What does this fold into?
Amino acid sequence: MIKNVLIYISDSLRWDYGYKILKDNLRSYYPIFKTVAQSVITPTSLASILTGLNPPRHGVFCFFDRISPILPTFFDLFPNISLYLDNPHDVIYKVFNDPPRNDLVTLLEPFIYVELSALTHMPYDKTYGEDAISYLKERGSNISQIRNEYKNCVMRSYERFLQLVKVLKKRGIKDSTLIIFTSDHGEFLGEYGFVGHTFPALPEAVYVPTVIISPLTEGRAYFKHGIIRQVDILPTAIAILNLNVLPWWEGVNILEESSQHLLGFNYTVIGREKISNIGKKLEFLTNLDVWKDIISSAIYSENGYYINLHCSFPLYLALLLYELFFRPKRKLPLKPSFKALTYCRRKIKYKVDKFSEEFWEKALNYFEQNPTFGFMNNLKVGTDIITRSLGKAKLRKKVKRLKYFKLKSNEVRNSQ
It folds into this structure.
């Protein structure tokens, strides 16, 4: 009987590098899911993993947001919990209302243990500590060295994951623990002139690997087609644990539903606070009324993606200046930076031409405004993309409950 959950999140682990190491080591024992990250910012994507909700519903958009205490999360399902980060004073703890940081060795059953490891986060040479700026200045345009060091970080992160599994074996509770390996978002490694993550929300920063290790998934073939989303992790875990709880999530049980018909939603609020980092000479620009939050929203299907950047045009130009020339963590030599201009458009489409741009805009607006399971089935006949075998009555209750959570979340946030 499975009664515990271990979730290992390797920060900034992109799909291609993660898939290779998992495939080489797990072989055909467990499926490896190609997963759409719900954001390319850690607190936002982590909130989607823990709540099963898309970002507009859980309301965590940056490191200074706080998740509403009335929103149910993974942590509410277990009496013993732990959120384990490398730095015990990491600001992420504040985002999730200071959950305890307990060691897996001593954590009592039944438990949920979530570890967010920075082993795959820049700088990839850990002798630099957290000084990513010095690291990139030293590496310059030596992309091959950056990628080799990143690959080594991926291996070290996987070894850390194996250490946690060994702890479970030593305690004699591996067979009673659901084990999940995933990432919060991907990483650019010189593609489009970028190193790092956040803007733009292109595949290297959005696709991550997910492995679910349990008796129900053992021996299944690799899923070579289709996608899953981070919001699917919670309902899948609840189904495996056979917990009897009222649904509040937007994800699906991926062991029952076909991953070939899902749409993934990526939503990143970049925010005007980043523009203030350009420098004191341009600081006055941040006080103008034209500034609004820059929102990158995207839909990822099995075959392609559609990305839309919501912001005023002056702010968009300022963002380009910031990303290409002023942000040290991304700064590469001038030539690849100009190449990046091609990928900093306000709308980016890839292999989605069989539907009109109006269709994708409606789909994005629906994801932003309404709770949805994100099935592809009914997209052709209108903007209602909530489709599942639950029945209309249950769906109406689900939408009403999520809208209530959103309303209460806004009330709590406004009162703080």
